[in-house]
Amino acid sequence: MTLTSIDLSTAPTTHEGILAFVREVAELTQPDAIHWCTGSDEEWTMLTEALEGTGTFTRLDPAKKPNSFYAASDPIDVARVEDRTYICSVDEKDCGPTNNWMDPEQMKGIMRGLYEGCMRGRTMFVIPFVMGHLEAERPMFGVELTDSAYVTVSMRVMARMGSAVLDKMTETDADFVQAIHSVGHPLAEGEADVAWPCNDTKYIVQFPEERAIWSFGSGYGGNALLGKKCYALRIASVMARDEGWLAEHMLILKLTSPQGVVKYVAAAFPSACGKTNLAMLKPTIPGWKVESIGDDIAWMRIGEDGRLWAVNPEYGFFGVAPGTNEHTNPHAMATINKGNSVFTNVALTEDGDVWWEGLENPPAKATSWKGEPWTPESEELSSHPNSRYCTPIKQCDILAPEFDDPRGVPIDAILFGGRRKTTVPLLFEARDWTHGTFLGATLSSETTAAAIGATGVVRRDPMAMLPFIGYNAGDYFGHWINIGKDNDESKLPKIFYVNWFRRDEDGGFLWPGFGENSRVLKWVVERLDGQAAAVETPIGHVPAPGSLDVEGLDMTDEALAAALHVDVEEWKAEIPQIQEWFDKFGDDLPAVLWTELDGLKARLGL
Ligand code: GTP
Ligand code: MN
Ligand code: MN
């Protein structure tokens, strides 16, 4: 069957832009049918049952995880593909040295070739969605067209989507981000589907000027749920540059002290470096309370009061499964145990539950993410290191009520952090906004399994946004500097830098982390109120001896001192790396960042 004349007369919208978009993509990709998503429970049931039918989903035991599903991807489709991700700005210079670029018309030519007929034998789902609140002053709409039911189900967890969104778009004739996604696996007449359709050829492409996203060949979250990384970070960062706000790879949490004082903290750590853990932290220090607002993305705008207000544009958690357990993240466990979740690339147990490395009570037998028999004695991992749970944020028992406030929350402190075995102390404070921007711009971390490629390699990951800045990173640093210049700095958040991952000589973590990170948060908010003492070092203000609350912590004084130590020789060794990193940007690097580097060198005695 060929879909030559597309009948949109029964489409549930009169929005001409949406209709034209759907028609154009359907004509190119030739799906068998078009389904307009409502976001209803009936639709969820229909889609999850269809996914069970194709073998993509295995339903978990409802007594353990109600309305939840296990999926295993093709082993070639397990993570974000940074080398296949492009920023196709009109001018190459706007892409900058940290992104892949191709001329937009050339890229469209290639991708039109790939998209031609690519949805044959499949249904095209039309997903109207909004990142952030539907009641926001300016709702941030998108429409994703996808030939994947898995993506459609996952989008329903991760974003506000469906009929209410479409109706509002229609009523207001709203602008929207056009997002096209195909797994790139058309089916010939009568051909059976595979459990995880995808394509060896993958492209994840952003067209920043057009605010458009074209994705091909992958079903993996970050490549396929286009509201998330592609829209809420890459495209939104360009909108934010143009309009004077910030779209960042940050968690948002609410911290209440024993005295009832509330502070809001945002934190940027690279993928698989602890945002989801910190966002749902269970404090070990008495009387302190953490509530979650977001675990991955923050959109931040200067409010009328001059403060920086943040919202989480998402509606679910797409969290790293391995390492998640009752100790490291009890609130995430409680959230997923309520059900309505999708687990991808973890292990399936014989009693219809899921398991992953780091979870309590290993099963005697399971099926690994590769579909092979697995036992605790197996040499291979049961779960891919980047296996994920996808679960509704509303199920989180410590979700702050402010999550539902379209204005968001005023941020008091920003933490930058990475995964470093050496050099970077547990905690220090920036001298001011510009120095904080320097710390963010030079943020370094060891690579993880969240992206394809070698792991454990130290690289610069500015503001934890290296794979997500939708334009020239030099201009992005300038944008951060300007936020400080154009606003009253005393009202902006104070900036801190943390490293949970420093090691001792035996390779063990110096700092116990997880719930104990509440001690770090306590020092941070005490600094805001001028209570906690700090000592000045070449890199910034480090907690003064005795100022970090370690009461009841099982840690020697030596280990604590080692965790907080600023080693001048180690920092001297960083300088050439920072120099080389800055050199990449040429004239696009704000001159004040060179001044910051000169200051650091001088303080190190270089
Ligand atoms: P994305 O969702 O990919 O953006 O990453 P994320 O920053 O949310 O990562 P997540 O919180 O899922 O981090 C998972 C990894 O960080 C696991 O390996 C955890 O064990 C580790 N981790 C998180 N917090 C801590 C900590 O305080 N100490 C130590 N040692 N490891 C931690
Ligand atoms: Mn992330
Ligand atoms: Mn996360």
TrEMBL record:
GO terms for cellular component: cytosol. SUPFAM superfamilies: PEP carboxykinase N-terminal domain (SSF68923), PEP carboxykinase-like (SSF53795). Catalyzes the conversion of oxaloacetate (OAA) to phosphoenolpyruvate (PEP), the rate-limiting step in the metabolic pathway that produces glucose from lactate and other precursors derived from the citric acid cycle. Its cofactor is Mn(2+). Its EC number is 4.1.1.32. GO terms for molecular function: GTP binding; kinase activity; manganese ion binding; phosphoenolpyruvate carboxykinase (GTP) activity. GTP binds at residues 272-277, 388, 419, 514-517. This is Phosphoenolpyruvate carboxykinase [GTP]. Residues 362-386 are annotated as: Disordered. The keyword Lyase applies. Residues 21-241 form the Phosphoenolpyruvate carboxykinase GTP-utilising N-terminal domain. It is found in: Cytoplasm. Monomer. Belongs to the phosphoenolpyruvate carboxykinase [GTP] family. Residues 245-603 form the Phosphoenolpyruvate carboxykinase C-terminal P-loop domain. It is an enzyme of class 4 (lyase). The keyword Kinase applies. Mn(2+) binds at residues 229, 249, 296. Pathway: Carbohydrate biosynthesis; gluconeogenesis. Pfam families: PEPCK_GTP (PF00821), PEPCK_N (PF17297).
